[in-house]
Amino acid sequence: MFHDLINLFYPKDCAICEEILIKNEQVICTKCLHELPVSNYHLHNDNPVAKVFYGRISLESATSLLLFHKKSNVQTLIHQLKYRGRKEIGGYLGIWTGNTLASVDNFKNIDIIIPVPLHKKKLKSRGYNQVEDFGKEIANVISAQYIDNVLLKTSFTATQTLKSRLARWNNIEETFVVQNPELLKNKHVLLVDDLITTGATIEACANILADIPGIKISVVSMAFTE
Length: 226
Description:
A 5-stranded parallel sheet has the order 1-7-6-2-3, with helices on both faces. The protein has 2 domains: 1-35, no CATH class; 37-225, Rossmann fold (3-Layer(aba) Sandwich). Helix content is 36%, strand content 17%. By secondary structure, it is α/β, with parallel strands linked by helices.
């Protein structure tokens, strides 16, 4: 009853089309939800996300939930999450991703989920890491541990949104450090991010994690740029 009253006076809108959500709709309306391009990459080990990292880093598995194109609904969704304070999008996509991966053998033995970190200046400016709730909800669904204070970013880079693919490659002066590495020893770690384009940020994270004895690394993102 109280929930219905709240929605009456403060109705929630779709994070994509901004139409008012009806009962039982959450974050994204049914119409927009059905129009989202789902990758289904988790069904294939030899998928485009995995291929991005061939010869660069050693991964157990890699996948993305959605396919990203410019001026698409997926771009709108990620923009709302990162720059318009719609944190609930991350949790929504995390539950969806977690349920998708729960039945996939390669992701059943994940021990720890780690978000790609933001530099403390960007975290202070934005107020939150856009992949935090994404990672937490995946962890809840697949019964993994979520840890966000082991992998830290020590360099500050401007937003990548408007940079070309070549510029992104040339701008990977991103530096990450690991504290308390013993927490990840002999663990299967799932790195989570919002968008994979060149894969350079994930590569930088994985390279620093790879020095930990016995670690296995997998990757999942909200979306992947084809």
